[in-house]
Structure formats: C-alpha cells, structure tokens
Design brief:
The complex is a heterotrimer of chains A (670), B (351) and C (277). Chain A is of the alpha/beta class. The chains are: A alpha/beta (670), B alpha/beta (351), C alpha/beta (277).
Chain lengths: 670, 351, 277
C-alpha cells in the first residue's frame, strides 16, 4: 500500500491527505475522505504538494561563506562556526543575539529551537516573523477564556446558525475552511461577510457589507451597542458566565451613533440588521485572519466581546475563531516561540512555570523577557548574531540591518534567497522525512510520520538542534521526536496527554488534552461550568483613517490574491507557481488594485504604471483595475518584495496594525 | 463463460501475479479509505470493498511521472536524451464498470485522434483488466444516467459477477479466455447468465433507495451544452462557487489533461516530468506574454462541462464524457460536482 | 493517424546562424543532426514545431520558412523564461525539435484566387512561409497583396524580404506605421485603415490575417465590410501549448484543439468554435 496518510503542511487548516510514496519518492497525492476537517477535499496547493516535495531545489549540504561565496562543508564544521559565533555574542550580552523561528517547523523542532535559545544560549530573544498578528488574537482569547487558541471548533461549522467573516479572503487563504462555511450556508446558515474587499466569500454570503478601511472596530462596537440598546444580549449567560460587562457597556455607550454610517461606509440600518441576526441565532461563529495581516488587538477584543455578550462563546456551534494562514503558526505559540512566553502560553513572569522548566532542563533560565526579532532589528538595538529558520527574505523588512550583522545562520530544507545573507547554512529534512507534529488553526495536534529518507547526509531538525546544543556543552540525549514530545507534555498542561503513541493512527487530538479532557477538547466550553470569564478591556477611541483632498485614496495592505506567505515554497513547484504567476507575472513590479471609477479619474487602464504618493514616501507599481475594491480604496499585496523594502519602511507603525493598516495616498499616472 | 467458487476467486489474482504487477482496491487500515493502488501481494486485494476513492486512471496515467531525461554537454556539443516510458505489464483487478469506462475513454482519446500518445501507449501495452459487476450501487453513484454500469459490456479481459456462492467469469478477449482455460475453470450455463441479468436488474432498482446523493439526467442537457444556449448567469452562478482547486478534474476517470515541466538536475540537464493538470486553473490557458483567453472562472466551468457533456466532445470518446462515478461531487469544496451542475442547467432550461 | 519518431522525444538540431531581427526578435537557422544533409523533416506552410531549449523547457513556435527552397529557421520573440534562454544561446548550441504539427495553409483550395495578406507586427512571421510559397508559385494565383502594419518603423519585420517583395512585379505591398514618426514618409494609421484606402480585390479572393487580437478583430470587420466572405478569411491562431499532439488539451478552444485541428482556421470556423479566441 503505497498511499500513506499524512497532513498537508501549507496552510493552517491542516487537511488530511494520502501521499503516494514509491521507491523512496513522492509520486502523487490524494485527499483523505474521513479526515474530520478536510473530509476529502484539498485546495490547489494541497493537490500539488507532491511537486514541492519532489523538487531538486533543496539544500543538500551545510555551507559556510568563504570570501563571499558559500562553500560546501560538513555539519561538524558548520555547527562549530555557528556555536562559536553565537556563544561569543551571547557572552557579550545575550540581548545581542536573536532566533527567528519558522511557523512551518514542527512542534518538536520549534520546542528544541526554543530550548536552544533559552537553556543553551541564555536568551529570550526568540520569535516568529516581524508582525505579532496571531499573538494579538491569542492574548485576547487567553485573557478571557484561559485558552490561547480558537475558542470554537472547525468541526462544528455546520452547527453554526450565523457565521460572520471579517476581513479574511478565506476561500483563498484557507480554502477548505471557506468550503465548510459555504456548505453551511447552502444548508441554511446565515453567512455575513464584512470586508473592505469584495472577496469570493463576500459574493457567496447572504449579506456583504463593504466597509471603509480601518473601520472594523467601529462596526463591531456599533453592533455591540445595538444589542445593548435593543435588549438583544443574553442576560442569563452574561450573569452566569461573565464578569466586567458593565465596564464594556459603559464604553460602547460612548460611541456616537451619528457618524457611524460615515465612518464605516455602510448604512447604520444594515449594521443593525446584522447585529439582530447574530443575536437571534442560536449559535454563531466569527472568523477573521490571524497572522501577518490580522486585526489589531482592540478590534479583536470588540469581536470577542460582541460574541460574549450574545452568549456565543463556550457553546457547541459557537465561538470566536482566528484563522492562521500557515500550518504551524498556532503550534509555534504553543511551543513558546515568543520573547515573553514559555510553552502553552505560560509567561516568563510566572515563577512556578519558570521553576518547572528550570528543574526539567537543569539550568537557570534568563529572567527578563526578550525582544522579538522585529524589535531587535528596528528598535535601535544592535543585534550582532541571528539564527533564522525557514524564512523568505521578503518577510524581512530590515534587510540593511541584517546585512550589518556579524553572523547570520540559516536553517532550512529548501533553497532560499535568504541564504544570500547567511554566513552559515544548515540543511534539515523536510516534513515528510522526519516524524513531527503540527497544530492547525483549530488546536488539532496531528502527527506526520516519516515517509521517506532525507537526501543523503541531511539531518532532521531535531537532530541538528541536539547537535548544536551538544557542541555548546549541553547534554540533551533525545532518541526520537517522540521523546521530545514527551518532554513537551511534561512541561505544557495543555499538551499533557499528548504523545506520538496516542496520536499515531488517529486524526490528531485537540488540546487541551489533560486529566479533565483525556480525549482532547472540542471547544472552549462553559456549559455546566461555573466559570466566569471577563470581557476584554477595550478602548473607546473610534477614529478611522482619514483621507484628504491631497491624499484622497486609502491604501490597504494585506495578503496577496493567494496567501502563499512563503512564496519561496511556491517557486519550487510547477502548477501552483503558474497559478501564482498568473497574477504576479502580469504585474511584475507588483500591483495596486483600484476600482474602475478611480482608474477612470486617474486616467489609467489595467497594467498602466502609476505612482503612489503618501505623506512620507512614494513607490511605483502597475495598476490592477478591479471591482473588488470600493471607490477611494486601494489595495496592495504585502508580499511583493520591493514594496515592503522601500515604500513601507516609512510606514512601519501603520504596518503593525495589520488588516486595519491604511495609508492615505494619492495615485497618479506615470 | 465460466464460473469460479467465491472463495477461490483469488486464484485468478494469484495467477496474474506471476506475470503482471497487480493493482486493485485496497483498504488503507489507518484511515479506512479504499484506494485503487499497486499491491505487492494479490491476496491484499478485496473485491468486496466499496468504490475506491481514486479513479483507476492513475495506473495508466500517473499523477506525476518522468517521461524523459537529458544531459546537454555544451562544450562537446552532445545531447544525451533518455526516454523513460513505463511499459511494465499491469493487471487491474476488480475495477468497476464506471472506472473501466473511464479507461476506455482514455484509450480512445490517447490512442486515437491525430496522434498516438507514446507515454500512454507504453503504460497501456500490457494491461490485463479484470472488472467486476456492481450488484449494488453506492450512495454517490449515477452510472445509470451515463450508460456506464452497473454491468460492463466491453473492454475487459475478464468480467466477474457475484452470483452468491460463485462468480460468473466472462472472458472478453483471447487473453481472458486463455487465462480461464489455464485455470481450468468450469464452464457456466444459461442459468448463470440469467442470474447475472437478475442481479444487474436488482442493482438498477436499488438506485432509488441507495444512490441518493447524485442524480444527473445528462441526456436532457447535452443539446444545450453542445450549442452553448445556456444563459451566462447559470455559468456565473456555478463559477461563483468554484474554489479553483482542480479536484474535479483530478478525480475524474475520463479527465486526461496534463502539464509538462522540466526539473533541472544540473547545468543544462533536466528531467521532463508529466503531471496531472486542470482546466479549472486560471494559468492553464495563459499564454506567454500574458494574454489569457479563459480568464474568468465561469468560462472555465463552462469549458469543463462542455468537455464532459457536449456532443462534439463525446465523439472523441464514442460516448458521453461522464461515467457517473460521483467522485467530483464528493471532492468539490464548492458543491458544484457534475450532478449539481446538470441540475442548475436543467432548472434554467425549464424556466 | 500519424506515426513519427519525434512526437514525444525531440530530435536534435544545431544552431548554424543567428540573425537579429527587430528588438527582442531573433532568427535561428537550424540544421538537423540526425538527417541527411541536415535538412529538416517535411513540413507545410502554416505548421509549427515544439522547440526544446535544453535546461530551460519547451515552447511552440510557428515555421516561417517556405518548404521549398528556404533555409530552415525559427523566428522567436523573447517573452519568457524559455524564449529568453534561447536568446542566450550561441551558434553551435543544440536545441530539440518535435514536429512539425498542425494543419497547414490550404493552398490547393485557393489556386487561381487573389491572395491578400494582412499582418500586424510579428504576425508576419507565420505568414511569411505562405507568402514565400505563393511568391514562388505566382502563376497559380491571381493578384497578390500584402498589407503590413507595425507600431514603429523599428518594429517592421523582415525588412530584407520586404525589399525583394516590393520589387517583384505582381506583388503589391503596402506598409503602414501606427502613428506618424519623423523620418517615416510612408503610410500612417492602423493596418485595417489601409484596407479602406487601397484597391482590395473582393471577388475570388482569399485573405490571410495574423496579428494581435485587437488588430485581428478590426481587420476582420473591415474585410467583411468590403465583401470578402467568412470562409475566405484565413488566420492562424495561437494558444498555450504543451504537447503539440492533441493530448494535453491546453490549446483547446471550444470543440477544437489548436495544435491538431489548427492552427490555421477560416473565420467561419473561428466563429463557431464555441469560445472566444
């Protein structure tokens, strides 16, 4: 039987598939019918994953830069150089080194990288990429429910009577979750999309509200106000299961109703109707993008509070569900990839947790929270050495700072332009060449078993990290990734009952998996519980980005047509690359999407070159004329290299606001 | 016409195993999914398993294969080209009439028309087909709407029909006859044929109660699809639900579009790979330079169903392009498998 | 059914000479390694071949040479990865050729008729083969006219051929540039406007049209306007191609496959294909 069950590792849905493995090579893929999330479906990426796994563009040997060129070497030598350099800079000041982990690495790999940073090199400077998008969602959810993950359940989408999709092009980002929502709609659920762009799910929804950029927060706050004013909250639920409602109610009362329509761009009546539908539905779910272009914390808090006051948290078929676009983004946070968190969202400030880790690891952990790579690179510090795992260079906006560093190490499976900045390159096996677990956006921890041998001489990530630790003087002694998971389970309450042995042959376990929930946890549950969870604190500034006569268009930044974050992986395939290029080759320097009316005003046609001018800078691009964006809104794809490295450097503060990021600009014909 | 005791039917597979690579329906134990795939031991094949999740075409038209490799030495001016065709003998054991019909369509397409496809011809050269009659439909089936089941009429070397305690073994070719004789199978008589007809009739009658997921009165829409007299709005409605994943074309037993791509193996050296492609994708028809004649998703939906249902296209297969297996309906994220599309078109015609 | 030994596996050809045509367009003269005298496989005007650039990939390219007495060559514009790699090749480099594929121009059916060629930009390349053939067999046809349009004088293809054609009695050539340009004292305006101005035969006339889609539509409209019938307007269509032998179906338009039923079609056929071109 050459079809081996596995999980797709592109997006955060974690679809199940069967890989056709013959004579040590992947020859094809087929969807898994009985997988609880994907149920026999795959998207264009999932259907062509075998092309990625069969690419010849892999890093085959360790490399060291000598006289400007990367030369082949051995693991021994390369690890030696890495350890020497990191130790040197770590000893000087542990704040001078940083670890940039990958949201694509397995849980075991991320855990070991985190252990390497903290226990061996004594630094808390470990993080994911530049923007803490998903972290904001987790902060909001964890603060209230105690669970740093999706509060609802992907498997219960068919049970939701009302589904709100806010600011996420879900049929392109996580297509199978989009499919599940669409099917629920066809079976009678009410689907409402609130977005600045006319996306596919918007067109398939029962109702679509095209809102002005930056106004999501007001939309959510106003809907909360409607529930408050029209007595449509769930007062029993609020009384029994929540605290702090009065504080929240006081804030939303301050929302001036008069200018809601103007600020949001939609009639107040429409918002009222949607609020009422939400309240009256027995069950409801919210979906929004969580990741590099997710919402800011306040907006997420309003969404959460809106659902909480209407009793749509903690019940079957309900929940607030941030959606991660990358396969193990959720797992990365579970594994403590953050400057101030250990595994399972246990903060460094929690003495008991730190003590537990110290005893398990036999070391004293660095006490002060570290800084994220983004902060290190742009916060005025002088980072001297960095270890980067599996990252596109296009994600990094601080290329100059990286070039200035004394030492950069790159660890990854596939060839990558980032290697141009590295002094040492260390290859690791791909996800089918080693056992590893991955946690999808629904908290489902799934085991991917090794299906073939890595290229000759290439080590799996867990062995490489062990080798680095050993070289630096630590004795780890793991015999397998399963043993790594055993340690994770000892240190992480939510993963307590998870082991490779239990995961083997199943479709995964949803954490928390512990004594109270031995089979895992479908959703955050309040039924039958006497827990009272707090409303999220919110602020009452209801400003929206303003355009002006000089800068009449609001420019949005977000994920591209197909959210294939790591373009690098796509470049290794044939068919997904062709699809990706179908848009990108048409606009080689990147595109800015404008509405037909704006195009007419500016005097340009599709693919005409334009100049985009903001108060702080300018850039040139081609224009894409589309009716997906409303008048006086423009949209630019985040991952077009030149755009982020030049234009947006001036607008870093804006970028931090993710989906709400808007810059007022003027667009002119060139 | 022969018979073989039910418990003995594996003798046929074991005999074939001596000369052929065996392919058949197998249950993947961890996920309980039935896949049609290569087996090392003929004993692993279970004829009683439900319709496999994947179509049989992957045995003669693999998902991803190398068809040629070359090395070009620019200094010496020498090119070394090595074709890499797979002509190993294969036995497809226990395939259902819908999948068999799919193979016949592929035969007529790849081996007929203007040119013969060498890659396919090599795969197909030494194939032994043992099909089986379906005595019961599955929930997703609608082969009765596409004239491709529940009993196969042609294209097989041996056809098995479960008659209760024994299998009726019909030889459809010299090869099949020789194998039956070699195994000294007892000859059947009229009563067995009559029993087979009864079982097929019974299978057809069960469609109403079991095969409830899909119905597709294809004959009613062939005309409209062929002439193109379908309101644009219907295609826009269908297209709006398409997530452009390509699944429908990949799981379809008669879909045969492929892509050719070169994977570099060194300087001026590459493997030429052939892989399944899908007309559902935007880049499928995109030309160098950017012009894309089939850009809107509704145009691509239109093209796919033209390919499956139109009269002009079925001339290439000598029968409709759909075999009623129901797989596209299962895998479609947007719920626009062929049966639903036919329903939408018929609704519009009726209006 | 055609059986040949290069339908799937390419045969090797050597680049004997490279000529620069207009900007980004080069002509590559090829000799076939495995054939007597290096001569090409038999081909007809209007057909195309699949050309492999080793290390880069394969692409479809129409055949400009006349089958009779013309050195075998390919004229290729650089538009992407594979054509770019071909442009980087030098004399002596090897390429792979599969084909020829496709139907050809229907010369037998147009004997005795007037022939009008209308070409836009590099659309002249596939028509060249036909023009050379007709020129070499002038007595079989009536009047022969060529209308050639380009954006600028620098983008006029085959200027060395044009000189000969202009000088040939019985061959009427008209050249136009889209917009007036200093130094150009010929006709200006889009090529379809020329059809209005000049004396174009209508009765017993066949028109060959090739060019970008926008030009194509305008020219067809004009030809029909002046009275040429749909089945007497012939064009060669382009499509993304991979196999060239009617199997991969990338080149499909409605009920037809451009690589086997085409690439030469009459306008009457194009109208009934079932999809836009």
């Amino acid at each position: 039987m050459n079809y081996k069950p596995g999980i797709c590792t592109f997006c955060g849905t974690g679809c199940g598939h069967l890989l056709d493995v013959r004579e040590g090579e992947v020859c094809g893929v087929y969807p898994l019918q009985n997988h609880p999330v994907s149920k026999g479906r795959l998207c264009v990426r999932g259907w062509n994953i075998h092309e990625l796994l069969r690419t010849n563009e892999k890093i085959r040997t360790p490399l060291i830069r000598k006289n400007g060129t990367l030369m082949e070497t051995t693991y021994d030598k390369a690890v030696g150089v890495l350890v020497d350099n990191l130790s040197k800079h770590a000893m000087a000041d542990a704040g001078e080194i940083g670890f940039l982990a990958s949201p694509r690495s397995s849980n075991e790999e991320n855990f070991l990288l985190m252990k390497l940073a903290r226990a061996v090199f004594k630094t808390n400077n470990i993080s994911l990429d530049s923007d803490p998008g998903h972290r904001r969602s987790l902060d909001v959810l964890h603060r209230s429910t105690g669970m740093a993950g999706m509060s609802g359940s992907l498997e219960e989408i068919s049970k939701a009577g009302f589904i709100l999709i806010a600011g996420i092009d879900i049929t392109k980002q996580n297509p199978i979750i989009g499919s599940e929502i669409h099917k629920a709609g066809r079976a009678g659920a009410r689907i409402v999309t609130i977005d600045t762009r006319n996306t596919q799910i918007a067109r398939l929804s029962g109702r679509f509200l095209q809102v002005r950029p930056g106004s999501y927060k007001i939309v959510m706050a106003y809907m909360a106000k409607v529930l408050l004013d029209e007595f449509l909250t769930d007062p029993d639920f609020i009384k029994k299961h929540t605290s702090g409602y009065d504080g929240f109610a006081a804030v939303i009362r301050t929302l001036g109703e008069a200018d809601v329509a103007e600020k949001t761009g939609v009639p107040a009546d429409d918002l009222r109707e949607v609020a009422r539908e939400l309240a009256r539905a027995g069950t409801a779910m919210a979906f929004f993008s969580s990741g590099i272009s997710g919402f800011d914390q306040d907006t997420i808090s309003y969404i959460y509070n809106l659902f909480l006051m209407s009793g749509k948290i903690g019940r079957e078929g309900s929940g607030v569900n941030p959606i991660t676009g990358i396969n193990n983004l959720q797992g990365s946070y579970d594994m403590g990839i953050a400057p101030d968190l250990l595994t399972g969202f246990q903060p460094i400030s929690d003495a008991a947790a730190v003590d537990k880790f110290s005893r398990e690891w036999g070391v004293t952990l660095p006490a002060a929270p570290g800084r994220s790579i983004y902060e290190l690179l742009s916060g005025g510090g002088k980072p001297r050495a960095m270890v980067v795992v599996e990252h596109d260079e296009s994600i990094i906006t601080n290329v100059n700072e990286i070039r200035d560093m004394d030492f950069v190490a790159y660890i990854g499976s596939f060839k990558n332009n980032f290697m141009d900045y590295a002094h040492v390159v260390l290859p690791i096996a791909t996800y089918v060449e080693a056992d590893g677990t991955y946690t999808n956006t629904g908290r489902r921890v799934q085991l991917s078993k090794k299906k073939l041998e890595p290229p000759k001489g290439v080590k799996p990530g867990w062995r490489l990290y062990s080798m680095i630790a050993e070289r630096a003087g630590a004795k780890w002694g793991y015999g397998s990734p399963a043993e790594v998971m055993e340690e994770i389970a000892r240190l992480t309450p939510a993963y307590e009952g998870i082991s490779h042995r239990r995961l083997e042959g199943t479709y995964g376990i949803k954490w928390p998996c512990n004594k109270e929930n031995p089979e895992g946890t479908a959703r955050f549950n309040l039924e039958g519980s006497s827990k009272k969870i707090p409303f999220a604190p919110v602020d009452s500034s209801f400003r929206v980005p303003q355009s002006s006569d000089e800068y009449p268009i609001l420019l949005l930044i977000g994920e591209a047509q197909h959210y294939w974050h790591q373009n690098n992986l796509m470049k290794k395939t044939n068919i997904p690359l062709r699809e990706y290029n179908a848009t990108l080759l048409l606009y080689p320097q990147g595109y800015v999407a404008v509405s037909p009316e704006n195009a007419r005003e500016i005097g340009v046609r599709d693919r005409s070159p334009v100049k985009i001018v903001s108060p702080y800078g300018s850039m040139e691009a081609m224009v894409q004329v589309t009716d997906k964006v409303a008048k006086n809104t423009a949209y630019v794809a985040y991952f077009v290299h030149d755009m982020i490295t030049k234009f947006f450097l001036e607008h870093r503060d804006v970028l931090k606001r993710g989906e709400d990021a808007t810059i007022p600009v003027r667009i002119m014909r060139v | 016409m022969y018979i073989i005791k039910k418990g003995q039917v594996s003798r046929i597979a074991k005999e074939l195993q001596k000369d052929y690579r065996m392919y058949g329906p197998v249950l993947e134990p961890e996920t309980q999914q039935v896949m049609f795939t290569r087996v090392d031991d003929a004993a692993d094949i279970d004829l009683g398993l439900p319709l496999p999740a994947n179509p049989v075409k992957s045995a003669v038209f693999p998902h991803f294969e190398r068809i040629m490799s070359y090395v070009y030495d620019r200094q010496d001016g020498k090119v070394d080209i090595k074709p890499d065709f797979d002509d190993a003998p294969k036995a497809l054991f226990g395939i259902r009439p819908c999948d068999l019909t799919g193979i016949l369509c592929l035969d007529r397409f790849f081996l007929g028309q203007e040119f013969v496809d060498e890659v396919y011809r090599n795969h197909r050269k030494n194939i032994f087909i043992v099909s089986q009659t379906c005595t019961e439909p599955f929930a997703q089936c609608f082969c009765v709407c596409t004239d491709s089941g529940p009993g196969a009429r042609e294209g097989y070397d041996l056809n098995l029909t479960d008659l209760g305690g024994e299998y009726l073994v019909e030889a459809g070719s010299e090869k099949g006859k020789r194998l039956a004789e070699k195994l000294s199978l007892p000859k059947s008589d009229d009563s067995h044929m009559r029993e087979k007809e009864k079982r097929i009739d019974r299978a057809v009658s069960l469609f109403g109660s079991i095969a409830k997921e899909n119905k597709a009165w294809i004959s009613r829409v062939v005309n409209r699809v062929t002439t193109g007299l379908i309101d644009e709005k219907v295609w826009e409605y269908i297209g709006s639900q398409c997530l452009e994943c390509g699944a429908c074309t990949y799981v379809c037993p008669t879909c045969s579009c492929f892509n050719i791509a070169e994977q570099g193996t060194g300087e001026d050296a590459a493997d030429r790979m052939r892989t399944w492609d899908s007309c559902a994708y935007e880049g499928y028809s995109r030309m160098a330079g950017g012009h894309n004649p089939r850009k809107p998703v509704e145009d691509r939906r239109n093209k796919r169903f033209f390919c499956k249902l139109s009269y002009s296209q079925s001339k290439k297969y000598l029968r409709p392009g759909c075999v009623g297996c129901g797989r596209c309906a299962w895998v479609c994220p947007g719920d626009i498998g062929l049966p639903n599309v036919v329903t939408y078109i018929r609704r519009e015609i009726q209006k | 059914m055609s059986e040949r030994n290069n339908t799937t596996i390419p045969e090797i050809a050597t680049i004997e000479e490279i000529k620069d045509e207009i900007v980004e367009v080069k002509t590559f003269y090829l000799s076939f390694d495995g054939r007597k005298g290096g001569s090409p496989p038999e081909f007809k005007s209007g057909q195309f071949v699949m050309c492999t650039v080793f290390g880069a990939g394969e692409f479809a390219v129409s055949l400009p040479p006349s089958p009779e007495n013309d050195r075998f060559h390919l004229t290729v514009r650089k538009v992407g990865k594979v054509t770019g790699a071909l442009h980087d090749c030098a004399v002596g480099d090897k390429v792979g050729i599969r084909g020829p594929f496709g139907n050809g121009f229907p010369f037998d059916e147009i004997k005795g008729k007037n022939v009008v060629y209308v070409a836009g930009g590099i659309g002249l390349i596939p028509l060249r083969s036909s023009i050379m053939h007709v020129m070499q067999n002038k007595e079989k046809f009536g009047r022969i006219l060529l209308f050639l349009g380009a954006r600028t004088p620098q983008e006029l293809m085959y200027q060395y051929n044009l000189k000969d054609w202009k000088a040939t009695p019985g061959f009427e050539t008209h050249v136009t540039i889209d917009n007036p340009v200093p130094g150009w004292d010929g006709e200006t305006g889009f090529v379809h406007t020329l059809l209005k101005k000049k004396d174009v035969p209508v009765k017993d006339t066949v028109a060959f049209v090739c060019g970008p889609p926008v030009m194509f539509n305008a020219v067809i409209k004009e030809l029909i306007n002046i009275g040429i019938q749909e089945e007497h307007i012939i064009s060669t269509l382009e499509r993304h191609m991979k196999c060239g032998i009617g199997k991969c179906q990338h080149c499909s338009i409605g009920r037809t496959l451009v690589c086997t039923d085409g690439p030469v079609y009459t306008y009457r056929q194009i109208k009934t294909l079932g999809e836009q071109i």
